[in-house]
Amino acid sequence: MLQDGNTVSNDGCSSLCATECGYLCSWGGSDSADTCHTTCGDGLLAGHEACDDANTLNGDGCSADCSNVETGWTCTNTPCGQTLCMSVCGDGVRVDDEQCDDSGLANRDGCSSTCTLECGYNCKSEGADCRTTCGVGTVAGNETCDDDNENDGDGCNSSCSIERGWGCDGNVVGGDGLSLSKRSGGRRVVSTTVTRISKDYYFHKNNKSAVVRFSLYTGAKTV
Q1: What is the pLDDT of residue 120?
Q2: Domain total for the chain?
């Protein structure tokens, strides 16, 4: 029977002098009490441990010494059981498998409500707003067009705004489907179809159409 010099429970040796869950106890000598201690990383929450996720690693929610729950995480504790931790999306701290965390849970701002990166955005700094990337062929955010380049004079300018005298229709994710049409006196006068190969554009005359249409190259002319 253990004797730790007191009748207090939750210190490794219970009031009935039995070893408590999550502790290891060592016998004392004739002039010293028995001693008990917890073992961080054994998956048994006990004593002064703030968490115990069955390992001694940092960066998974529970610190390596089981002394605290790490920033950006929330953990569920069970007495004499294993701590379960998960990242907190929307707190501005990017951890675990979060692709981004902009301190919010709104969609269509670059970082989704599940902390995944939305198409057409880059989120370089945690907790900061995400920004669109002009010239990648994906219309996002405040962009009114994105024709897969940052050139002026082609309908969509270097800041991804529609240029004066042009009309842009059919913007879709990925860039294909974007239509550009030159306007003159309120009328569309361009009758050219564009087929894209990578970032180069090949023009084919199409008198039946009054718009410039962007489409993925399939090996055949667009009609």
Answers
A1: 85
A2: 1
Q: What is the mean pLDDT of residues 50-72?
A: 97
Residue 222 confidence (pLDDT): 36
pLDDT of residue 4: 53
> Chain-wide mean pLDDT for the chain?
75
Mean pLDDT of 205-222: 35
Cα–Cα dist 26/202, whole Å: 81
Q: Is 180 exposed, middle or buried (0-12, 13-18, 19+ CB in 10 A)?
A: buried
Assess if residue 219 is contained within a domain. Answer: yes
pLDDT of residue 10: 73
Look at residue 43 in the predicted model and tell me its pLDDT: 96
In a domain, 169, yes or no: yes
3-state secondary structure the chain: CCCCCCCCCCCCECCCCCECCCEEEECCCCCCCCEEEECCCCCCCCCCCCCCCCCCCCCCCECCCCCCECCCEEEECCCCCCCEEEECCCCCCCCCCCCCCCCCCCCCCCECCCCCECCCEECCCCCCCCEECCCCCCCCCCCCCCCCCCCCCCCECCCCCECCCEEEECCCCCCCCCEEEEEECCEECCCEEEEEECCEEEEEECCCCCCEEEEECCCCCCC
